[in-house]
Design a protein that fits this description.
With about 475 residues, this protein is mostly helical. It has 20 helices and two strands. It has helices at about 1-15, 40-50, 55-65, 70-100, 100-105, 115-150, 150-155, 160-165, 170-185, 190-215, 220-230, 240-255, 260-265, 275-305, 305-310, 315-325, 330-365, 370-390, 405-440, 450-475, and strands at about 15-20, 25-30. A two-stranded antiparallel ribbon has the order 1-2. A hairpin with a 5-residue loop joins strand 1 (about 15-20) and strand 2. Helix 11 (about 220-230) runs antiparallel to helix 14 (about 275-305). The radius of gyration is 22 Å and the shape is globular. The chain starts with a helix and ends in a 6-residue tail after the last helix.
Length: about 475
């Protein structure tokens, strides 16, 4: 069994690509060597960039406001240090162990249909997410342009956002700009593209978030919002607080999207997986907290403590926040900084999703990076266009009562990602084996201090939690429960 595993692993580490002419003669033969991050900082910033996205900036604050403020934050942190930690370690170790993207990583340990299905679910998720994610990235570009043009009062209008997204062709142009920028970074490669952009954007993102958070918490009446967000009140606790915090982790930590398996495959063997995971945890949680401090106190100040304003959901970023900024002094400048921050966060997550898909094309279809990027670009524009036009010319076309963007979001985040998480837990604990995972994590004398937590979570609690999220999300979508 061990020898069989080692032979398969050696075969997967590199393959030979043969290009033949029309008569079948070999014209060119060369080895494909897998790219790597330059070191720990490159991996941590790239993985953190994948995690820090739109889910942190707008989804985390409104969920925190809706489900208890400080108690939601406390539960989220506990889950991130247990559930989130275990999933990040499992996916990263699996990727580095096999040096493959999700499909290849699952296939390394066997050729059964069940194993292949788990890998393909992880691989398909980013292909479906990144098109509609890029549509939202296009919305951010539009708002940033308008703020630079000095139109902050126009953006604060009641009907601006609805009018903009219903004009399908206007949103299509912004979406294509965002998509082409993402594809350009991916085409440049792992070190020259993903790592370089992450090293540039992530420090700026931190600085911008600090500026806005400080400005927000110093507004008149904002301190009550700070208290609500940071101080746990157990009277606000409910079962949906736990379920929502678990669901948010999938968004925030890029769990079960194939990203961490792919990035793990680019990770050098001498880098500590546990230390890197801890850094990603801290980075992601810190940005989520900063996002809460950016938005919740400002909206508290603007609304006079009206909780319904904070619970606006997805419209919070594009409707409520522009109104808040318009009511402030320096509203245009803060609007520019905020949407620049959101754009950077959207780009870092978008390139991670796109890279995961491109890596699968390279590994499984033996395509070059250029061809993989072009084909994925065509898929992104095709599916993304449906999401763009779904609020405009195609608004009458729905799937189970949802617009295209909402349906793709429901399918990936509420159905496929929990299933993918369950598959990873079972695969790592039952097929790969915890001993092999531990051996990968402790290479070169690296530590595995939370080994007991990891073993218990990945075998028992993580799959149970993922199953709860799956059932709750489906029940909510069909109106059986309200979240």
């Amino acid at each position: 069994m061990v020898l069989s595993y080692e032979r398969k692993l050696r075969r997967h580490k590199e393959y030979e690509k043969q290009i033949c002419d029309g008569k079948g003669r070999i014209m060119e033969k060369h080895k494909h060597e897998r790219s790597t991050f330059s070191g720990k900082i490159g991996f941590v910033l790239s993985a953190a960039g994948a995690s820090v996205g739109l889910g942190n900036i707008w989804r985390f604050p409104y969920l925190a406001a809706k489900y208890g403020g400080g108690i939601f934050l406390l539960i989220y942190i506990i889950l991130a240090l247990t559930f989130g930690y275990s999933m990040i370690v499992a996916e990263t170790a699996l990727g580095r162990m096999t040096k493959k993207s999700p499909v290849g990583a699952f296939g390394t340990f066997g050729k059964s249909k069940w194993l292949s299905l788990g890998g393909w679910i992880n691989a398909i998720i980013p292909v479906l997410i990144v098109p509609y994610y890029s549509v939202i990235g296009g919305w951010v570009i539009k708002y940033l342009i308008e703020y630079f043009a000095g139109h902050s009062k126009t953006l604060a209008g009641d009907a601006y956002f609805t009018t903009f997204i219903s004009n399908g062709w206007s949103t299509e142009i912004c979406f294509i700009i965002f998509t082409l920028f993402t594809l350009g970074i991916i085409y440049a490669g792992v070190r020259n593209g993903i790592e370089r952009v992450s090293k540039f954007m992530m420090p700026i993102l931190i600085v911008l978030s600090l500026i806005i958070a400080v400005y927000s918490v110093t507004r008149p009446g904002a301190i009550e919002g700070v208290k609500y967000f940071l101080v746990p009140n157990f009277d606000h606790f409910s079962w949906m607080t736990v379920v929502s915090a678990m669901g948010q982790m999938f968004y925030s930590l890029s769990i079960a999207m194939g990203i961490l398996i792919t990035f793990g495959s680019y990770m050098k063997k001498d880098i500590s997986i546990e230390d890197s995971t801890r850094n990603v945890e801290v980075f992601d949680t810190a940005i989520a907290i900063m996002a809460g401090l950016m938005i919740i106190p400002a909206v508290f100040s603007f609304s006079g403590g009206n909780m319904e304003t904070l619970k606006a959901g997805p419209s919070l970023m594009f409707i409520t926040i522009p109104k808040v900024f318009a009511s402030m002094g320096l509203g245009t400048g803060i609007g520019i900084i905020f949407f620049l921050l959101v754009l950077f966060a959207a780009i870092t997550s978008s390139i991670a999703l796109t890279e995961s898909a491109v890596s699968t094309f390279q590994d499984e279809l033996h395509w070059s990076r250029k061809k993989s990027t072009i084909i994925l670009g065509i898929i992104m524009i095709g599916l993304g266009t449906l999401s763009c036009l779904g609020y405009g010319p195609l608004s009458n076309v729905t799937i189970i009562g949802m617009q295209f963007l909402d349906f793709f979001d429901f399918l990936t985040n509420s159905v496929m990602m929990p299933i993918a998480a369950i598959a990873i837990c079972i695969f790592v604990s039952r097929v790969v084996g915890l001993e092999k995972v531990e051996a990968e994590i402790t290479k070169d004398g690296n530590s595995f201090k939370r080994k007991k937590i990891f073993n218990f979570m990945i075998q028992y609690l993580c799959p149970i939690f993922a199953f709860i999220i799956l059932l709750s999300s489906i029940a909510n979508a069909f109106g059986f429960i309200s979240m």
